[in-house]
Amino acid sequence: MRNTSVLISGAGIAGVTLAYWLRRHGFTPTVVERAPALRQGGYKIDIRGAALDVVTRMGVMDEIRRERTDVRGASVVNAAGKRLASMGGDTFGGREGEDAEILRGDLNRILYELTANEVEYLFDDSIASLTDDGDGVKVAFESGETRTFDLVVGADGLHSTTRALAFGPESEYVRDLGYHISIFSVPNHLGLDRWELTYVSPGRTALTYSTAKDTGAKAMFLFASVSPDDDHRDRDRQQKLLTGTYAGEGWEIPRLLDGMADAPDFYFDSLSQVHMDRWSKGRVALVGDAAYCASPASGQGTSLALVGAYVLAGELAAAGDDHEAGFGGYEQAMRHFAEQNQKLGPGNIRHMVLRSKTQVWFQMKMLSLMKYLPGKERMMAKVMEPIQKAARAITLKNY
User: Fold this and answer.
1) Which of 186, 243, 290, 345: CA 20 to 30 A from 118?
2) CB atoms closer than 10 angstroms to residue 163
3) Is pLDDT at 228 greater than 60 in this prediction?
4) pTM beyond cutoff 0.85
């Protein structure tokens, strides 16, 4: 079989999962990652629907359950810190059955350890240029090294360098949803024990939570924005924007913001989606957020990465020497699944960030009354039904 050497750009969930399945199918993957080491920390993510099948086939479901966040519940609070409504963690997170919640960094580590001894990883480096001559792809790295691979796959996220080099500028494919998100570690000054607290004001939402095996906490900020073009690597500018947006807010906002200066895992970006007519061009393809980012608001980014990597590797293996057939099979199998999950993002974020004082007042009033209503768990399950349906919108083949 030709086309066996594959360069994967990005050692996140999609990239590491793709490396695992390509290796299982007899390919020789190499992973290049801009960061100097595997990225740690990150927010809590859910694995549900078809993605559960992928991690089960990888044999890591038991380890994922051992590393679960074990968040017991969540409460919505007002500016004075009064808890207006509370519910169980699984109900609040829309999980059911075998669904699993885990920190992104923990999942990434588990998957990386499956491949660390048999896949070449090039950390602290990235792709500088690509030249597809039809028989292979000549890759120049930022380090100065030049190598040729049969295929190249961009698994390098929303701001994919691979996509920009092979398909064109980011502005052609990335659609801003009108919001920003920031997440970072903070001291657990509230003494939370596997619990989440959420505060809502017009155009701004903030929350903090603690998880099992973590003595600290995480803070998350979601807010409406009119500045989609911020430099996603300019930390100082991002922190000034975040501080200015939440200036004057009550509750625990000032103390949470105080923690961001020293946070080793500070993350800030626009809430955006990627929409493309094609996910491959010649010998270059895209997977995960680089191809069909649904945004964190969808709750399905990790599941899309896991499923997409599994399908791409399987279709390439099934196509043998014909990489174009492999890429085509991957797009045909994944397109509907990606589109159904992308539909979740815009609707979800409108419920997470309320635009007016009237909307905030009404939601807080309803939440304060919810504890008196029978069947509130069934009500939440109905609200979360679309995400469960989208999570199962593909039938995985046995490659």
Assistant:
1) 290
2) 28
3) no
4) yes
